[in-house]
């Protein structure tokens, strides 16, 4: 960027102005970060939860300053007939770590999930379903290994030692030499990877401080776990629109704690952030995804995690 700026000064005044205008209005550019020195703190009042079903509740919050739309769902893993569902259920024919893209809403509809969110980072990205995607980090679906761990990032493990519990861990601590894979000697049936810890033991915890992405405002998806491991909290925060400018990782931690998480990690965010909800018999996208700077366009992602409830 510095090189581009130096060359810009040899252009005419009109050219320089045009370049500056274009750069300023590129919503995805790191130079355009609204409310950079503002922190979106949760209120002092308790969250107002509404029932989705007997095992899950939703809380929707809108802030005026900075403008922010926050969608949170907490799931009681101990509730009767609650199941964890992970996409994809197996690697594609292209091999381990490769899958076909699918929108979170499509995944939720196909598996009758009452809530689902996007999970692992991946490449490449588009809104087209059925394309090959390379998964970054661990993905295990009902005991089937889809993608191996990435030692740089964190993950959520579920159905640990046959129990309906969840735990957030560093992927580097997962033992892949055992069958099945284990964490500290404990097996797990389901896992998806994300990026970094944001909340640890109830305190804000920013992995690798100094990362630009940690302090920038972006759409965010995060997953949190209660202290006893019996409750999962899913949060999606909209971004890159005038109605919701996105959150920093510190704000993700603050809101996760507000929603009663003891630990939390960020999942893939940006244009991938999406949450699908089953309400009144219909599955809809709860938030406003922004794929390729276009609000309302849902990205076809590599992995998703959801929860269903058998009748």
Explained architecture:
By secondary structure, the protein is mainly beta. The protein has one domain. It is built from five helices and 25 strands. The protein has helices spanning 2-8, 13-24, 104-110, 212-215, 249-258; strands at residues 50-53, 56-64, 67-76, 82-87, 98-100, 113-118, 122-123, 132-135, 139-141, 144-147, 154-160, 166-170, 174-175, 182-183, 186-193, 197-200, 203-204, 220-225, 231-237, 263-266, 275-279, 282-285, 290-291, 294-295, 304-309. An eight-stranded antiparallel beta sheet has the order 1-2-3-19-18-20-16-17, with helices on one face. Strands 9, 10, 11, 12, 13, 14 and 15 form a seven-stranded antiparallel beta sheet that branches. It has a five-stranded antiparallel beta sheet with strand order 4-25-6-21-22, with helices on one face. The radius of gyration is 20 Å and the shape is globular. The termini are far apart. Residues 1-31 have low confidence and may be disordered.
Class inferred from helices and paired strands = mainly beta
H and E string: HHEEEEEHEEEEEEEEEEEEHEEHEEEEEE
Whole-angstrom Rg? 20 Å
Total beta strand runs: 25
Overall average pLDDT: 91
Which stretches of 5+ consecutive residues score pLDDT under 50?
1-31
β-sheet strand percentage: 35-45%
**Overall spatial form:** globular
Distance between the termini: 56 Å
Approximately how much helix is present in the residues? 10-25%
Largest sheet: 8 strands, antiparallel
Give the number of domains.
1
Strand order of the largest sheet: 1-2-3-19-18-20-16-17
Number of helices: 5
């Amino acid at each position: 960027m510095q090189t581009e700026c130096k060359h810009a000064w040899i252009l005419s005044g009109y050219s320089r102005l045009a370049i500056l205008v274009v750069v300023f209005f590129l919503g995805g550019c790191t130079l355009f970060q609204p409310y950079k020195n503002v922190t979106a703190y949760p209120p002092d009042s308790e969250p107002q939860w509404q029932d989705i079903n007997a095992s899950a509740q939703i809380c929707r919050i809108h802030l005026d300053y900075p403008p922010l739309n926050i969608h949170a769902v907490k799931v009681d893993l101990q509730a009767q007939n609650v199941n964890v569902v992970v996409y994809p259920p197996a690697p594609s024919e292209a091999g381990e770590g490769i899958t076909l893209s699918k929108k979170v809403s499509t995944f939720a509809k196909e598996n009758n999930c009452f809530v689902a969110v996007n999970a692992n980072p991946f490449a490449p990205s588009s809104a087209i379903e059925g394309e090959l995607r390379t998964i970054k980090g661990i993905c295990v679906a009902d005991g089937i290994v889809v993608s191996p761990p990435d030692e740089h990032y964190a993950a959520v493990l579920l159905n640990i030692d046959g129990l309906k519990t969840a735990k957030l861990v560093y992927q580097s601590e997962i033992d892949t030499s055992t069958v099945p894979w284990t964490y500290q000697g404990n097996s797990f049936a389901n896992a998806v990877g994300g990026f970094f810890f944001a909340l640890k033991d109830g305190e804000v915890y920013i992995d690798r401080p100094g990362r630009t992405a940690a302090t920038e405002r972006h759409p965010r998806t995060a997953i949190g776990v209660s202290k006893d491991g019996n409750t999962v909290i899913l949060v999606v925060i909209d971004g890159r629109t005038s109605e919701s400018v996105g959150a920093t990782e510190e704000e993700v931690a603050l809101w996760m704690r507000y929603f009663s998480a003891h630990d939390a990690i960020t999942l893939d965010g940006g244009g991938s952030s999406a949450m699908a909800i089953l309400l009144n018999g219909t599955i809809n996208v709860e938030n406003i995804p922004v794929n390729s700077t276009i609000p309302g366009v849902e990205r076809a992602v590599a992995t998703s995690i959801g929860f269903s409830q058998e009748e």
